[in-house]
Amino acid sequence: MAESPPTTNEPATTNEPTIEADPELSTDESDSTLGDDVLVAELDRLDLTHQKLKILLDNKLLLCPVQNPGRILDVGTGTGIWAIEYGTVSKRRRTQDIELIRLSGDEHPDTDIIGTDLSPTQPSWVPPNVKFEIDDCEEAWTFRESFDVVHCRYLAAAIQDWPKLVSQAYQFTKPGGYSEFQDYDLVYYSEDGTLTEDLPIQKWITTLLQAAREFGRDPCPGPKLAGYMRDAGFKDVQERKFKIPIGPWPKDKHLKTIGAWNLVQIEDGLEAFTLRLFTQILGWKSEEVQVLLANVRKDLRNPKIHAQFDFFVAYGQKPTDPA
What local confidence, expressed as pLDDT, does residue 37 receive? Predict the structure, then answer.
């Protein structure tokens, strides 16, 4: 059975909100053009995706071998759930002592974490060691200090210049520190021939990726991350590739669980993924999109179609004596 997101009976902190805005950035250009209800649903989907990826990575929030990081930057933090979980530890009294309960195996209450995003969609109440800033990661970074870890996850179809992003991560990683990128290759495929070119789901994803590329955003950065990191100057770059099924069709219990979570998040985001790109970039009519999506939903739930895509994790260390 799939895990449930970790909970705690105590509020993380009673401090005032720690979301800081850059006055030069406007948040009017939100990615959501479908209204407040859709925005709320999208935030829920992002949290669900976080849980799916945590299950995929065996309950780990980072794969790089960093030890006791003092400062972490979470680029494109979204709802802030990754930063909050990494920086949270709950407390439970047992007799005269306080027992620290590790919620997911990676929480570090002594680590200062900054999460950045274009939109102020993070919660107001957060751990005291976590803060959020509104910032555009594609503009020049202006942090006063560097970081032990720069973490960047799930920015497929959102970044215009990946080499620049990775280079800035290198610049703001401390010598001896790590940067870690986690992202998708969103090309759907099957290993048994059940995903054929004539299916609506294949037409949909192929057209979606085409629209993202025409918009100037790479929807499949995953396989390129390790190369970007080596080019930026990181050493000992490691890459891991994971298969993510769409739906609970695998026989393997672990993959079945991941597939079930993945199916829910795709269905929840299907309209938001599609409408803007298809109508504004490709010129489709909304009615045409809805007809296609109705057939895509049928394919998504067809257990005879064994579709999947890949997820990549790449991490590397900044040399202690960078040139």
Answer: 57
